[in-house]
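> tool_call: predict_assembly(chains=two)
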Amino acid sequence: MWSTFLILGFGAGAILLQTTLLHLAPTGPAIPDLILVMCVYLGLRHQSVGGAVGAFFLGYMLDTFSGTDVGINAFAMTLVFLMVYLLSRRLWIEGGLSNSLAVFAAAVLKTLTITGLVAVSTGALTAGGMRDDLLGGALAAIVSPLVFGALGRAKGWFGVTQQ
Amino acid sequence: MFDFLRRYQVLVSSGILLLLAAMLISANDRRGKRVDPLGRFVLEAIYPLQLVVSRISGGGYGIWHNYVQLVGVQTEAEALRARVAVLEGELTRLAEVEAANLRLRRLLEFRRTIGERLVAARVIGWDASGRDRTITLDKGERDGVAQGAAVLVPEGVVGHVFHTSPGAARVLLISDRNSGVDTIVQRTRVRGIAEGGEGACNLKYVKRGADVREGDHVVTSGLDGIFPKGVLLGDVVQVNTPKQGMFQTVVIEPRVVFDQLEEVLVTTSQEPGRQIERLIERPVHGPTDGPTDELTDELIHGPNDEPVDEPLDGPRDEPSDELTHGPTDGPTDEPVDEPSDEPTDGPTDEPINGPGEKPHSGGAEVKLGLMFLPTPAVVEQVEHRLDQPRAAKGKRLSGELKS
């Protein structure tokens, strides 16, 4: 229960940041994709149905506050969660650097997925969106240790145990 | 079955969610409009927070942005202030240069009208006591300036040199009480001696019946051997005719504003070639820098040296040559009073009174010696006093004045 609220709260906070404050950062159109970081976090720390639902819902919120077709980000985030989950079962992903690398890899996967889905949906391949998504993924990889730390602390405060 | 689902619950749930997402995408594509069943609620739940954060962030961004901008503006303002100060300084300097150019140009034009060899000099000092009216020039014996040389400006007579050194000369202004200039009233040709006074000059030894009116121009007579003839000295501002006495008192307002003198022309006694040669050997260092110096240098060295940025409107060659070589036409080629070849000694027969020198035997005698051409009235007074033969009186006077 607390885990659901925690994910929802952080997801809402991430959406708020991505739609408001982070646009003020001097990084141009690229903004750090905090939702992606949370999805990676869920794939690493919440390997359960709740984690998958959380990733889906985070992606859905991203769809709601973005201009893409509804479902594209939900699909991409769910896929990211799944890939991270599968990867984490075979690779030891722990620590800031590996987390950041995982986030960046997830950003690449998400970018390719969305680009592919948009291309299928619209019949056009947009390289500009890829570039911004990759830059956003890189920024997300940079800030991922902070997000991971904040989520871990929040879990400690609310007594949420890792599933 | 349940074990499979429990074992692969993440994979299964993820697959179902992926399928759901794909269905959403497909539904959006097929219906041609946005299908977002939960988006309305999500948006409704998020937007108040978004509004608050947006306002806060917008305000904070505005404050930060304005602050940063203000910091930049302050820096820019300081830079602009510094720039303005520099430009104002430059403007002032250029104004000074322009004023100097105008003055020098007027000197050059004035030089054409004077049939004398003149050298331009800067006023570098004023009287130390404040009681007397003297100035110091930056030209001296090396430049051909000798005792008794006339000092002129376009406005009129300034004074005469009463003391020289190799590099400087001291000038007794006509406003000094010890000064006297042989003058004539331009309109009626009435002669008189212009003596210095308090703020004005007094034209003395003008006979009672002489026709002198206020507004008359008083010019130099040219008979004293110092000042060229016809140079304006001032205007008559007051005429006092006493009921008794031989002379009337005439007050003259000098045209020259002595407190504002900066450059003057001095009659020289050297041959032009020698003078120019010495001037070239001696670098000119004036109190001001910049184009004024360049102009002055050009005036001295002539136009064939490094060109300056056309400080003068008219042809510069002619006046420059005139200042250095003397006028090329008219009486300049044949100066009326050709000075001797010994400029530093000064004219031996023309004793010059300095500001501190006492009259030898009365004011009339001093003026007689000073101006060299006493008026008849003065001669009469002198003769009456001395009561000696004319030759003996002259010798005695000459000896006294020399001493």
